[in-house]
Amino acid sequence: MKKLTGSRLMVGIPNICADILYVSRFKAADPVVFLQHGRDKYLVVSRMETGRARAANPALKILTPDELGLDRKRRWQVSHWAAALLKKTGVGKVDVAGTFPLGVARELEKQGLRVRLAQEELCPERVVKTAGEIVHIRHAQRAAVKALHGACALLEQARVDARGVLREGRQVLTSERVRQVINRILLDENCSGGEPIVAGGPLSANPHWIGHGPLKAGEPIVMDIFPQSLETGYWGDLTRTVVKGAPSPALVRMYQAVKKAQAEALASVRAGVRGVSIHQGVIDRFTELGFESSVTKGVPEGFIHGTGHGVGLEIHEAPSLGFGGAILRVGQVVTIEPGLYYAEVGGIRIEDTVVVTREGFEFLATCPKQLTIR
Amino acid sequence: MKKLTGSRLMVGIPNICADILYVSRFKAADPVVFLQHGRDKYLVVSRMETGRARAANPALKILTPDELGLDRKRRWQVSHWAAALLKKTGVGKVDVAGTFPLGVARELEKQGLRVRLAQEELCPERVVKTAGEIVHIRHAQRAAVKALHGACALLEQARVDARGVLREGRQVLTSERVRQVINRILLDENCSGGEPIVAGGPLSANPHWIGHGPLKAGEPIVMDIFPQSLETGYWGDLTRTVVKGAPSPALVRMYQAVKKAQAEALASVRAGVRGVSIHQGVIDRFTELGFESSVTKGVPEGFIHGTGHGVGLEIHEAPSLGFGGAILRVGQVVTIEPGLYYAEVGGIRIEDTVVVTREGFEFLATCPKQLTIR
Fold first, then answer.
1. Of A11, A228, A318, B233, whose CB is crowded by the most CB atoms within 10 A?
2. ipTM, 2 decimals?
């Protein structure tokens, strides 16, 4: 791990800026200023928040705008919190992330302080997960598996009406209803589900379409579930694709190709392997199996996204398993999620979230892979 | 409304950056680039997202990194998306918000483009809500009211055991359990509840403490519910404080003071009034009623936060009803939420979310205010 020699400064809302939540462990919906200078870690919060901040992380030196000597006018602007903190601590030069707010940077520079853009990640330690973090991600991933089971049970109980539409009792079974069942289960696991993808039919060829309306037999139903723990802020990420009733032979071939590509990609995961080579392996396998990627009338088809991404306090974070994917390291948590998408058929995606080990990987939660739901 | 004369540029994740979601109406968990130049609005998204982006907002000109001519190396960096977009559109100078990412600003400047920090809000139009936005906020606010009713019903059904602890059947009734009931109701309204505050006992003197453990009779229970619509992203915000059983005379006096201050603050809301003067009115009233604010052993007591804040695509947004509070305008949506907090007693807060009108205000949802639950 590359160590930063300087001091690092972060300004933002901890509930939104994962770096700040990571280093401060202080959950809050209002902006804070964090400074790490050598071993010292400072957090500036409004006076009202001092009690919570101290309780959240006793290792932080908590300061308020008053304690920094800010007058009434400057007390409400975080750029002045940051400037006053640097002056109080005698830090004249700080490293910041690319996402650092320009407004704060300009104010610091105006006051003669130097703001240096970190060339790499400002929190390189975030990319490798601690045992404690893995517990948090596993919790979210297990919640996703439970929710998927609940969704599959609903699809299993559903009957198919004369027009091929799924019904729960008399009601038409919709993406919205399945989403609701997923979110209720996630909530029982103290996770927020956001808008999980329950995409049925040809429109599932759009990987991020969340899905709307009646679900039908014989069509792919892509379910992508990404819970965030309400307590810890860590995410899980899981996708399965199912068909109620009999899938077409074309769909079965697509499914088998994705399943095979995912298994091979998983088998190639281990510390020391480059993310890009795992991704290239998936591309090559799909081509070999006859599934070409192209752009038709401006719409991309085939395998049209990366093979995976890191998961932690952000749902999409480093490392990438796409064209920019660097060498994997022990303790990284990544998704492996190849997919195939064709406008006339729909999408197939299979995704697991795993921990990279020296020899290979470990599932954070196991979940069967079966296309057909009777 | 002050119009910006230049072009405005935004770079970030729409689901996180409210300005971008507001102007693009495109929900996404990955970064995009938005440029408004005169009447033209451009959005750069990855190729995979073009279909969703076009469907979300037909008024946008959607571009991809490929269409901007970016090579393999630059195709993955949003700073290059932004630079290429400005060059393609011939825009040499842009206005950006204070939150604009420094990394992107530095890259643009390196390429000879001018990045000007907007002196005021970059999206001044966000502060006054359209009729459509008010519908969205009302939906979230009504969900909050329903959830509060559910929580109160649970407290009403609870019995008090010999030690004064609330019980639901045989189970001890905890903050966690009430939070769960609140979140389930919010989910049924297609809202995400996050971590609503259900803070019982003296620790509720910390306004943002979410509350943990058994709830007891005779103690204040602060319930602060802030749902976000999963569909639209708009928030609601509602707080009530209740006591199961008989409150102490001191608590009743505190409650009456907060109720009175809130009613008066509401009565003073109308277009043309300064937010700071509403806030000062609350401070003065509390002082008059004998509720002093001070800092005891580093812990602030009394009325220790602002009187309110704007609500929209962010839970805390402009306008402020605190010391920095400017003139209110018709169509703004704000909370009115005075509170009193004393370490030995706990907290009392009453909060409603209202629309500012020419003559006064309108509740977005009505909800009774009663301290005691039998």
1. A11
2. 0.95
